[in-house]
Amino acid sequence: MDIRLNEEARDALRSNRPVVALESTVIAHGLPYPKNIETADLLERTVRENGAVPATVAMLDGEFCVGLSEAEIERIGTEKGIRKISRRDLAIAAGLKLTCATTVATTSFIAHRAGIRVFSTGGIGGVHRGYSADVSADLPELARTPITVVCSGAKIVLDLEATREWLETHGVTVLGWQCDELPAFYSRTSGLPIDERIDSPEDAAKVIRARDELGLPGALLLTVPVPEAFEVPRAELESILAEALSLADKAGVRGKEITPFLLSEMSNRSGGRTLRSNIALLVNNARIASLVANELTD
Ligand code: PSU
Ligand code: MN
To answer: Is 153 touching ligand 1 by the criterion CB < 6 Å?
Structure first.
């Protein structure tokens, strides 16, 4: 598989310096313009400030790209009709030379093949509320890709309990960064268990190395709660989410459109609080991912 690595990422990987992969669906579909581009830049800066090399992943004109220029990030964040691709779309996108944003599934797929060990995002996809047949392709990809994904759990719009069960059944290890329960995206708690609490990058690296030595096929999720100042309490969220879900139902929004629709509705209904929370957790996750990536190259 041909992957275009930019010079910085290629040099860093060759000389065993820390690299953190970042995804592009959050830029193209997860956040509104111009916050999307500002956030993408901020995430890259955060990774650098914490001693690692950022590598945003996307598909540009049919090419798997790891490490984007500022102009390329701008393109992903502004061009109309950027497709959100999951595993099922990889061959279409490559064959027909499309320009696409990569989800957790496809970012993990590409980053792992490029030799990157740590990937930072906001929230993974999962089992949808009310449509338990709609299971994000993020989940099976995580079950077969041995990468570490730093995230704040699964997005709150999902059925978190069913998503948590799925991860357990399929052997995806869920660690909690300085926390005792699975974070719930905009909220710090969910009432759902993690497999182990981790308090330092050193301990995270120990578990990651052991996973690699055991040859386990699945990803390891390092779940990080949103910083306290940006948390939106669950009770408040649930009422906004209920409104957004019923609107989606009435409008017949389904499939890959539903997550972006719900995130944007919730932001409108919370006066932008959920958006600020989303950005804060993305930045914080990029920071923790960088610390872990540093530890892994020592
Ligand atoms: N994290 C965010 N916002 C997002 C996403 C992650 O803070 O929009 C994206 C990821 O790319 C993830 C996707 O893979 O949402 C899940 O989409 P779906 O539920 O359609 O599988
Ligand atoms: Mn889906």
So the answer is: no
State if residue 23 touches ligand 1 by the CB under 6 angstroms criterion: yes
CATH of the domain at 163: 3.40.1790.10
Domain count of the fold of the chain? 1
Nearest CA to ligand 1 atom 8: 30
Residues 6 or more apart whose Cβ sits within 8 Å of residue 36: 26, 27, 28, 30, 77
What is the token pair recorded at 163? 């998503």
| Domain range enclosing 96 | 3-297
Task: For residue 114, give the nearest of 149, 147, 85, 142 by alpha carbon.
Answer: 147
Q: Whose alpha carbon is nearest atom 17 of ligand 1?
A: 125
Summarised one tens digit per residue, pLDDT across range 21-36 is: 999 999 999 999 999 9
Distance CA 107, CA 104 (A): 5
Identify the pLDDT of residue 96. Answer: 97
| Closest listed ligand to the CA of 100 | 1
Which listed ligand is nearest to 105 at the C-alpha?
1
- Tokens encoding 36: 């999307």
Decide: 126 in ligand 1 pocket, CB within 6 A.
no
| Cβ–Cβ under 8 Å, residues 92 and 31 | no
Residue 55 near residue 6 (C-beta atoms within 8 A) = yes
Query: Which residues have beta carbons under 5 A from ligand 2 (an ion)?
Result: 134, 136
Instruction: Tell me if 259 CB under 6 Å of ligand 1.
Output: yes
In the predicted model, residues of the chain with pLDDT beneath 70 are none
